[in-house]
């Protein structure tokens, strides 16, 4: 009858448990070197940040990828490639990129955009874009004489829309009979806006309106109260914009404080 050495059995059991624990923490052991599961998690986060979310079905692919990277890295180290200046410089650039990203992420967490800041920015938007909106048409020509003739032709019964299609040098609106769609006065150059807001629906400018683009003949078709989006509808965009502004200011402050010789 065979006798078992209890001490040997205990040691084997401990080694088995240790190996199981190692496998639980690691993806694999490659040439005696552990490949931690944290690498899979980091790679998954990197892919997600690049717009490629990783689902459970891709776990085996991720595992194969991190194992392959470890194999290739070990071979590169065997060849001494990690001692080259090129490797060291690229490693430093990568290290800087990671640290800077972490710095900016931490700033966003510690200096978030508040609801009050979003509301204040929205109120500024409303103040600048509120009031009236105009559905107008225009015909743009190069000379004042051309504009005066068009005004006379329209007064005689000529079609504003047809003349715009044939003579307007604004290709965007000209093809649509001069239609500029709904817009606030702030959307146009001052000379155009000042003349437009004086018109009632159905009225046309009686004299050419000169701007940096040429001479305009303007007709207002309709006027309405500005149709602005609600705060909740634009809150994500405003928040993102304010976050970017705060981050830019943070960067500028750091540069201003730095002593560069």
UniProtKB/TrEMBL annotation:
Segment forming the signal sequence: 1-24
Catalysed reactions listed for this entry: [protein]-peptidylproline (omega=180) = [protein]-peptidylproline (omega=0)
InterPro entries recorded: PPIase_dom_sf, PPIase_PpiC, PrsA_foldase, Trigger_fact/SurA_dom_sf
UniProt keyword Isomerase, yes or no: yes
Listed Gene3D superfamilies: 1.10.8.1040, 3.10.50.40
Transmembrane parts of this sequence: none
Keyword list, A-Z: Isomerase, Rotamase, Signal
Pfam family, one: Rotamase_3
Domain PpiC: 131-222
PROSITE patterns (alphabetical): PPIC_PPIASE_2 (PS50198)
Enzyme class: isomerase
MF terms (GO), sorted A to Z: peptidyl-prolyl cis-trans isomerase activity
Superkingdom of the organism of origin: Bacteria
EC number: 5.2.1.8
Keyword Signal set for record: yes
Family: Belongs to the PpiC/parvulin rotamase family.
Protein name: peptidylprolyl isomerase
Species annotation: Variovorax ginsengisoli
